Automatic annotation (TrEMBL):
This is Cation:proton antiporter. It is a multi-pass membrane protein. The keyword Phosphoprotein does not apply. Residues 130-423 form the NADH:quinone oxidoreductase/Mrp antiporter transmembrane domain. InterPro entries: CPA3_Na-H_Antiporter_D (IPR050586), ND/Mrp_TM (IPR001750), Proton_antipo_N (IPR001516). Belongs to the CPA3 antiporters (TC 2.A.63) subunit D family. It comes from Orrella marina. Residues 70-114 form the NADH-Ubiquinone oxidoreductase (complex I) chain 5 N-terminal domain.
Length: 490
């Protein structure tokens, strides 16, 4: 089997898994076993591509050329490889978790849920391995559409309204802003291929380039820059496994991954730095980063607080891209990995709390650690990683982003990162403090003993929490691998 064929197989496995899941829905044990097996096989297929990328081999497949400069094609570069490994690896744990959650919460329409979930991973891998902007755009839209039924899963009016906002904003920004930017790019350059150093500098004036940057950055709605962020908290009506998919595995990571790809391979860092609009987007990202944290502080519902936390954390990566420094880009790539593990742990824990204790509000969590010590211990690790405390992975991504700000001579952005970290502490630690240090409310816990969520929920959240710790010690190889996009190991 050639590596080119294996690349196509890796992308296709989740799509095949969706079909198999739908066909085996009559037997839930068989369906769930096949789903986890497919997720495992998908990760193995993606992982098997890594040695060729490490060796510097060029893996590219052109499926169809529609006209000069417009083709559906796939290729692997280090940043895409990292995103694909994160998405396919966490797919396994999220699948296992979803089985425990969906059964524990007695959710309906589980077969439809798991089939759409697999299609979303298929779209995420297509985005990760897209060789050009057209291919990325197609899979970007597939991701939006395939996750709509997941957001609307409960079928009540609240879920339908949240799903309409979700799809409306994502499709509206991509069709209304990003697609016109792509058409102009193709018209002026004759291509939409991702190229080292970018394709715009020698073909587009700075004035036009500045407008294109605005269209791209606001058109990538999945990156949740304000004011196009409301889809993300609106999607919190979905079951918790969907929240994990949205916030850690696929959707938001596809957004910020696209931000990095466009910045590096369409604009190029030198050209990007010369555009006045890059400073504007930088300040919008800084505002989003801080404002979303302040909103998170005011939320008493745990999932809503975590949703606004994600809005804030995504802007770390957009801000890093606009700094146009190699160090900040690497920091942004690292943050995709570190935030994925930290935030998925937090959402796994939120879902476990709902399944086991039927609690959703932060004030209800007083003394909860006495009943759910493993879950709350994992929540603490996830929170500290998102905060950026050593020895957890989030420390290194934030450190590299601040180094990038210093390298780009934007000292005020270092202050923005530091203030945001203090806000992270203010909104992420209170649930832990209440759970460990406060006494349960009178009559809130009448039964003695431990009452954790089902094992299928408990094992994934434990593993992702451990992952936040392990990533602290393996961050340097990941950092060096991402750095090879600039031609050398950093």
């Amino acid at each position: 089997m050639t590596n080119q064929f294996l690349l196509l197989v890796a992308i296709a496995i989740p799509l095949i898994g969706a079909v198999v899941t739908a066909l085996s829905g009559h037997n839930r044990n068989l369906r769930d076993s096949l789903m986890v097996g497919g997720a495992t096989l998908g990760f193995i297929a993606v992982l098997s591509l890594l040695p060729s990328v490490l060796d510097g081999s060029v893996l590219a497949v052109n499926l169809v050329t529609m006209m000069p400069g417009l083709s559906i094609a796939f290729a692997i570069e280090p940043l895409g490889m990292v995103f694909a490994l994160v998405a396919s690896g966490l797919w396994i744990l999220t699948s296992v978790y979803a089985i425990g959650y969906m059964r524990g919460a007695q959710e309906k329409h589980q077969t439809r849920f798991f089939a759409c979930f697999s299609i979303a991973i298929f779209a995420a891998l297509g985005i990760a391995f897209a060789e050009n902007m057209l291919t990325l755009f197609i899979f970007y839209e597939v991701l939006s559409v395939s996750t709509y039924p997941l957001v609307a899963h409960k079928g009540n009016e609240e879920a339908k309204r949240g799903a309409r906002i979700y799809l409306g904003l994502l499709i509206g920004t991509s069709i209304g802003l990003m697609l016109p930017a792509m058409l102009v790019t193709w018209h002026l350059t004759g291509t939409l291929d991702f190229q080292s150093g970018g394709i715009l500098q020698d073909n587009v004036s700075r004035g036009v380039g500045a407008v294109l940057l605005l269209l791209y950055m606001f058109g990538i709605g999945k990156a949740a820059l304000m004011p196009f962020h409301r889809w993300l908290p609106s999607a919190m009506v979905a079951p918790t496994p969907v929240s994990a998919l949205l916030h850690a595995v696929a959707v938001v990571k596809a957004g910020v991954f696209t931000v990095l790809k466009v910045s590096i391979y369409l604009f190029g860092l030198d050209y990007l730095e010369s555009l006045w609009s890059s400073d504007l987007i930088m300040w919008v990202a800084a505002f989003t980063l801080l404002a979303a944290s302040i909103v998170a502080l005011q939320k008493t519902n745990l999932k809503a607080r975590l949703a606004y936390s994600t809005v804030s954390q995504l802007s770390y990566i957009t801000l890093g891209a606009m700094l146009a420094s190699e160090l900040s880009i690497v920091g942004g790539g690292l943050h995709i990995v570190m935030h994925a593990f930290g935030k998925i742990t937090l959402f796994f824990c939120a879902g476990a709390i709902y399944v086991a204790a039927h609690k959703t509000e932060i004030h209800e969590m007083d003394g909860l650690a006495r009943k759910m010590p493993i879950t709350m211990g994992a929540f603490l690790l996830g929170a500290l990683s998102v905060i950026g405390a050593p020895p957890l992975g989030g420390f290194w991504s934030k450190w590299n982003l601040m180094l990038g700000a210093a390298d780009a001579q934007h000292s005020i952005m270092i202050a923005v990162f530091l203030i945001s970290t203090l806000l992270n502490i203010a909104y992420l630690l209170p649930p832990v403090i209440r759970a460990f240090l406060l006494k349960p409310a009178d009559g809130a816990q009448s039964k003695p003993g431990i009452e954790e969520a089902p094992l299928f929920c408990l094992v994934p959240l434990t593993l992702t929490a451990i992952g936040t710790f392990v990533l602290f010690f393996v961050a340097d190889p990941i950092r060096g691998f991402i750095g090879t996009i600039f031609g050398s190991v950093m």
